[in-house]
């Protein structure tokens, strides 16, 4: 029964059993030759792709270098996360305020460095270095603690201690100057 269906199908379909037109073989060979020449041109194009290979490798190297440098700068920004300014905008302002105030007082202290006050100024600078070392430890603690409030308060306290130290030293220098002026007046 299946064979009958297939036979009927072939009978209904009109297959062209005629001879191909003249020159058919020649046209077929020309098309075949054209395809071969086209594929040869593509093969020559693969040589041009070999020119692109070094350029692509340079681009890949540049991309890798960019990622390395981005990682380096990202690592530096990670290091800055232990800073008081990274906690919040208010803490950033607080840090800027204290830093500017300390810098101003430090410049005043260095301006007062005279033969009679050298020992006091050097001692104050040594104390400031110790406080700076302590502040760096607090920065590490802040990074490790996940911005613990106690560490933040300790950092602010460190700034206040520096300012108090500078203020006390400047006051002592003023007292020394005033005592020196009084003794000079009494001497005259």
TrEMBL record:
<keyword id="KW-0472">Membrane</keyword>
<feature type="coiled-coil region">
    <location>
        <begin position="121"/>
        <end position="176"/>
    </location>
</feature>
<keyword id="KW-0812">Transmembrane</keyword>
<keyword id="KW-0175">Coiled coil</keyword>
<keyword id="KW-1133">Transmembrane helix</keyword>
<protein>
    <recommendedName>
        <fullName>DUF4179 domain-containing protein</fullName>
    </recommendedName>
</protein>
<feature type="transmembrane region" description="Helical">
    <location>
        <begin position="51"/>
        <end position="73"/>
    </location>
</feature>
């Amino acid at each position: 029964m299946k064979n009958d269906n297939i036979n009927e199908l072939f009978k209904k379909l009109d297959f062209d059993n005629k001879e191909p037109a003249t020159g058919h073989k020649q046209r077929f060979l020309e098309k075949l030759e054209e395809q071969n020449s086209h594929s040869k041109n593509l093969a020559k194009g693969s040589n041009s792709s070999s020119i692109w290979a070094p350029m692509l490798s340079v681009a890949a190297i540049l991309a890798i270098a960019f990622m390395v440098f981005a990682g380096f700068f990202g690592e530096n920004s990670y290091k800055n996360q232990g800073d008081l300014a990274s906690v919040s905008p208010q803490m950033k302002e607080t840090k800027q305020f204290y830093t500017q105030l300390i810098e101003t007082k430090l410049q005043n202290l260095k301006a007062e460095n005279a033969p009679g006050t050298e020992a006091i100024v050097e001692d104050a600078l040594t104390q400031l270095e110790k406080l700076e070392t302590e502040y760096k430890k607090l920065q590490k603690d802040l990074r490790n603690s996940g911005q613990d409030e106690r560490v933040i308060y300790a950092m602010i306290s460190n700034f206040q201690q520096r300012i108090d130290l500078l203020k006390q030293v400047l006051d002592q220098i003023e007292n020394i100057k005033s005592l020196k002026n009084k003794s000079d007046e009494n001497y005259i």
